[in-house]
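Me: Here is a favour to ask of a fellow structure person. Could you put it straight underneath, so I can go through it closely?

Assistant:
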Amino acid sequence: MKHPLVTQFALAAIVAGAVAGSGAQGPQEVQAIYAINRQAVVLLEQGRYDEAVAAAKNAVAQAEARLGKDHPGLAAALSNLGLAYLDGGQYDQAEAPLRRAVDIGRTGWGVGPADMGALLNNLGLFYGRVNRLDDAERLYKQALGLGDGIGTPQLFVATWLNNLANLYIREGRFQDAWSLAEKSMALLPDRSSRDPAIAETFSLMASLKAREGAYDDARRLLEWALEIRLRAFGDSHPVTATSLHGLGVVLEERGEHRKAEDLMLRALAIRERLPADHPDLGRSLIDLAALCHAAGKPDCAQAYFDRAFANLRARLAQYFGFMSEDERLGLLEDTDRFFSAYFEFVLAYAGPRPELAGGMYDAVLARKGMVAVSVRALLARIEREGDPQAIALTVRLRERRTLLANLRRRGTTGDAVDRLAREGADLERQLARRSAAFAAQEERGARPARWRDVRAALKAQEAAVEYIAFEPPRGNDRAARRRFAALVLTPGDRPPRLVALGDAASLAAPMRDYRRRAGLARDPPPAGERSFRDAFWTPLEPALADAKRIHLAPDDILNQVAWATVGDGGGLLAERLDLRLLSSTRDLLAAPAPVSANGAVLIGNADFGSASGRAAFFAPLPGTREEIAALSRLLAGAGWQVKSVEGKAATESYLKGVRHPRVLHVASHGFFERQGARPGTPEDPMLRSGLVLAGANEGASGANDDGVLTALEASMLDLRGTELVVLSACETGLGRVLQSEGVLGLRRAFELAGAQSVMMSLWKVPDDETRVLMTLFYRKWLSGMDKHLALRDAQLELRQMVIRDRGRDRPQAWGAFVLVGP
């Protein structure tokens, strides 16, 4: 087991309470409470989690009634209840009793080092399983710091070392993990012991050996672990299933498919008694699917994939009901195993089984923007329900994000800043929990988007293209072997067409070609190097048939491509095709959202203030004054209500107060700082991208305004009903590219805030050409042209001006802006 159960803690604490006269009626009654608590522990040790929960609840009720709310015996019962929830996969219920147990242990009396360490460790287990890795590490280290206390059993310390080592493995700190495993081993008896802590140490050592490719060593260690667990728990315990499954995975890597399958099926038989959304059940199903794929049994593989995705959907529905956004993003690595294994399977069998491409399309619709969609739905739900407490939590979250952004942008670090970040995350969790009941009501009976729905939404001569990037589920150097593919969907009766595009290594040259053609790199192309068009577009053309309007949903690095600049022989793709960028082709299914009345807020020509004494310096942008003036005249002439804000009034505070205009246009400096670009660069990409507003050179003018609107802060704007946000600034489309989740930066921020479409730039843009482009775009759009066509035609018209004035094409002068959204 990965946690020392607190049986001896419960006995010591409760008996101590009785002796001290803590309010218990007498030793017999105390022993009765202990017996109830012991029953919960025994059930937990036997893997009978539902029964353990019921017994633990009874122990909590009895201890609270007879011993009081701050008694260590209550802490023991609470911790056991939390562990029963945790091991049973009910993560949404586990945190509250585990946290309360720790709080009692810290403030109560009679808690020794071993007891407190056990409580901290058990809460750390929960944090580790829900991707709160910093919190888990902090608690494990606190427990180990208590490990030198008198009376702390060595097996407890060994367990805490094991748990910290497993966390380090997840963080890629393999040498640190091995060092901790060796320390743990030194504290343990020989392997003839029945103690599960020894099996846990062998298991984590085996995982490290397997990563190195030392499968013989890994196998031997796992066989020892299985032997111990069989003696300790028998052959039908969930912990035994962990050893059976782990050994099966290693044997599969060694090519021993039949033995691997037998072991993994034994593990599955045990895990099928767990709840349908239990993560261990999901691991068994997805690994058996991959094993069937490797063995050339597609029907078997498909059956396991279907069950694995049902498990994943149920699990995410639970997790998203209590997790912060960062914790949801942390889940992507775990969920990616499911999608990667399935995509590899489909690529292998789609030739003889073309219907598999439809299943892959459905999986892509579920995968892309999974976290962004959940966060946006949460915020919309809060606004729709009008829950006063949820709205108050949102206000508090906005305040903490602003303060955190201001401090982190200044390079401020320390406990106070870390505490502020934790408070913000906790507010997100509270919001998620408050909206979970509403979500359950909304989603009851709801059907996920399917490829047939997207096909039905397409008109004649239209097509939908989903680009997909995924990493192989196993093996070293996964990033270099990242696979790219595309799914093409057209109207009619045809299912999606799957097109394999290659891996990251083979596609590096085409990406260099794109950068050269866009003017972002000047090195001459080596002879024979494939073009971007030949790699990423030409293979799709047979499936596109006669389509003229293409709805493109990029993935991974393709999110950073300005598609208007992509060549097409002697011209451009955009000259003969209407290319429209979406976060996901799922967006084609959304009912037309109501938009605000024809009102526009235009912000530009901000007074950044004096730069004296400050390292950051933002030069004035007088050209944005002309841009704002020209757009104001166009919009007003079309009957719009226009609010133009300039100079010292163009503040961060003003922008935060804007409420869902139909158009929000910001002409200013934008930025995206790559990690490590300067000392103190924030780790969070939502703090490394932003817009510069009035007073930015002078620093903070208040807690709500330091002159820089980071993406983190922008995500809290109220832009529901805003049809279009235009970020007329440099590099506003850049950010951290997160596979399947898009770009973490300003684009994501304004989408989360509610904007239907966002126009932004992918590189530094020249002022004059930007002003001309924006004027052309608005003129065309206001005349009745669709906004996607308006941008395309404006860019092509500006391109002709550049060629005329400069004697050659310069895509970097006209092609930086992209428009994403319906």
